[in-house]
Specification:
single chain; 474 residues; mainly alpha
Length: 474
């Protein structure tokens, strides 16, 4: 039996202080003292990893197959940009509305529909016989991964004790960056052997086990409890306890705090939450501008046609594609993203969120200044790896802060909005790279430096540590 308590307090207020009844336990107390961390969390984290995998997998995929599409369909630079931008543009719109719908109808419900549609869109893109049909299906893909990633980071935080809450975003972001490594590695082995159409199908295969596990496991207990679905919340809690070989005593009544209005945009931009909402939106815009800009910039820079001196643009008339060596370098550099992500998690535990974020942003600027030197000669593997490490570090730190900055009742709506602002940055960043790279690669790097500096400045507007970090880790 699960009871809801309408309150404006924090999720972590001891139950006995609110109810005077020692048998009424707040949900986090049940997580910490009964359920613990075990197989149930491992399954949920696996779902989060595989769902997040689809995010950067699809974005990395389009970056490495664009040269093949250019050769097959004689694409112009504008249409190359349109294909990639369409994914991000629809992604941004989807993240806003699907984040709110996830607060209204549940994390599991939204992700199960979008994962199924993602598999369909992959098949549609693989069999597309012209560029317009391909563009349509990739837009559908953008809508699906926008909904998934806006939801999965929050989903991954809601079934663990507070002390383990930041593990969820770590697993999700690791899934994203692991997909960058996996896609490039799979491309290394299969792209030239089976072609780009089969590569799309292969890359989408991890969606199948994610979908199956999602159907098996119950909805997020914290979401169910907060939204008033008490019977389902109680069943979900006891189901998790059973998987972990624990028992929730029959005399224990579990409660959590229920908001007056679930998933409200008005609450996100209320006086209390306005500053983090706007500031994090701008910072995420900047860093996804950089992240996706680099994602499409590096394959172009690595291609053998990039041989101009002093930053001169390459010759686009030749039908160049990525060599095996290029794909191998991109795969190895993606390991830098994984390393940066893991480093951010442990740094966040011991030093908080804000100071490491500011230091990371500053190093970002320094690394891009170093890219100025490399661009005049050749983009080296070392500078590429450094870029991957520091970008992943900053993005991971932001994504730990984002869900922690808002209460459960608006957590997914807020992350949907912020994720949408990030993908708006992806639209601008991708367009900038495709349209400027063949004119002046140095101009592209200049844009990266300016945007990194803007993010660095915004980090000082966030003037206090997140509640979760203060209470459970720092």
């Amino acid at each position: 039996s699960t009871r809801n308590l309408v309150t404006e307090g924090d999720d972590d207020i001891p139950a006995e202080e609110l109810t005077g009844n020692e048998n009424e336990w707040e949900l986090n107390k049940v997580y910490e003292e009964i359920i613990g961390v075990g197989p149930a969390q491992y399954i949920y984290w696996t779902i989060s990893f595989l769902v997040a995998y689809s995010d950067y997998a699809e974005l990395t995929l389009i970056a490495i197959i664009i040269p093949y599409l250019r050769c097959e369909w004689q694409l112009s630079p504008a249409f190359e940009a349109t294909i990639t931008i369409s994914i991000f543009f629809v992604y941004a719109i989807s993240a806003i509305f699907m984040g709110k719908l996830s607060d209204m109808y549940g994390r599991k419900t939204i992700m199960s529909y979008t994962l199924a549609l993602l598999m369909i869109s992959a098949v549609g893109a693989a069999v597309a016989h012209n560029k317009w049909i391909f563009l349509f299906w990739r837009s559908i893909t953008g809508a699906c991964i926008g909904a998934n990633f806006a939801t999965v980071v929050v989903y991954s935080t809601e079934f663990s004790p507070n002390a383990y809450r930041s593990v969820g975003p770590l697993i999700s972001i690791l899934g994203s960056y692991a997909s960058m490594f996996a896609v490039n590695l799979i491309g290394f082995f299969f792209l030239n052997a089976v072609g780009w159409r089969w590569l799309i199908i292969i890359i989408t295969l991890p969606t199948i086990p994610a979908y199956i596990l999602l159907l098996i496991m119950p909805e997020s207990p914290r979401y169910l409890c907060v939204s008033g679905k008490t019977e389902r919340a109680d069943k979900a809690i006891r189901f998790m306890a059973k998987i972990n070989k624990k028992v929730v005593p029959e005399n224990v009544t579990v409660f959590c705090h229920q908001g007056q209005e679930l998933g409200s945009f008005k609450q996100v931009f209320s006086k209390e939450h306005r500053k983090p909402a706007i500031t994090l939106s701008v910072m995420y815009f900047c860093n996804i501008f950089i992240e996706t800009g680099i994602l499409v910039f590096l394959p172009l820079a690595f291609m053998s046609s990039f041989c101009g001196s002093a930053g001169e643009p390459p010759n686009r008339d030749e039908c160049e594609t990525l060599s095996q060596e290029d794909l191998w370098k991109l795969s190895l550099s993606a390991l830098g993203s994984i390393a940066g992500c893991i480093a951010a998690y442990f740094v966040g535990i011991y030093f908080g969120r804000l100071k490491p974020l500011r230091i990371g942003n500053f190093i970002q600027i320094v690394v891009f200044l170093g890219l100025y030197v490399c661009i005049s000669h050749a983009v080296t593997f070392g500078i590429v790896t450094a870029i991957k490490i520091i970008n992943a570090f900053v993005c991971m730190m932001i994504w730990v802060i984002v869900p922690e900055s808002f209460p459960t009742i608006i957590r997914n709506t807020a992350t949907g909005l912020i994720n949408s602002s990030g993908k708006s940055g992806a639209v601008v960043g991708t367009a900038m790279v495709y349209l400027l790279f063949y004119v002046s690669p140095i101009a592209v790097v200049t844009c990266f430096v300016v945007v990194a500096a803007l993010s660095f400045g915004c980090s000082f507007i966030l003037d206090k540590e997140t509640n979760d970090a203060v209470l459970t880790e720092t």
